[in-house]
Amino acid sequence: MSYTAWILLTASLVGISCGIVGVLLILRRMAMMADAISHTVLLGIVMAYLATQSLSGIHMVIGAAVAGVLTTYLVQWLNSRGVQHDASIGVVFTILFALGVILIAKKVGNAHLDVKHALMGEIAFIPWDTIRIPLLGEVPVATLTLMIVLFIVSLIIGLFYKEWKITTFDPALAASIGLPVLAMHYLYMTLLSMTTVAAFDAVGAIMVVAMLIAPAASAYLWTDKLIMMFVLSALFGTISAVFGYYFALWIDTSISGSMAFATGIVFLISFLFSPRHGMLSYWIRPATAK
Fold it and tell me: Where are the transmembrane segments (predicted)?
């Protein structure tokens, strides 16, 4: 595959995996948790690096997943002690993210891990860091990681589709029929953390947040069916990745930033033109009623 094709494939994998995970995030009204976890996983990544002195491997995913679950636990703990939910998120994620930044500055400044890299990513360098896979040949490490994470996310979402549906829309009913609501919540937070760290090196925290929220929010405007929301969110994530890449080439700017901007364009189009919830339909309805 060509250099451009690898970048587009990697960005599309980010869009699809984040799009799928983001649907449950939007439906559970936890959009700000995406921002929190996409920042606090930095601490998990730094701790994993300090423990192994390596920037690649499964330990990075494990460290990020632990940081993500820790963020969720601390937010819920503070909330159960009377602190407002949004305030809990703000306190936890700023403290953990700041700790990660401090550790980067003091402990790993000589490694290929810095604050700018964490925020914006290095997707243009992805095709150069490869690994040889039988039958596939040379494959970028980030692309392979995203493929594996997408497979895991799709498998777990598919296997527990009914459980996700019930615990998302009616957690009280789910608890009454014996479903492990809290366990499902922490499993979801683990999936969110895994997806975030898989995309972290390629596109940075800014695009991860955009891909987790905007495509799913756009899909929510187009359909009321959960399965279609998953499909549309993944599709919108892919469209944003491709459009953002060529837009970045056109004006010679940040690729990740342009992809994040593209998710906003997709949301704006959905907000205006979706048939049921779009602004245009609200304007037309009163006129046709007359």
Answer: 6-27, 34-51, 57-75, 87-105, 141-161, 168-188, 194-214, 226-248, 254-273
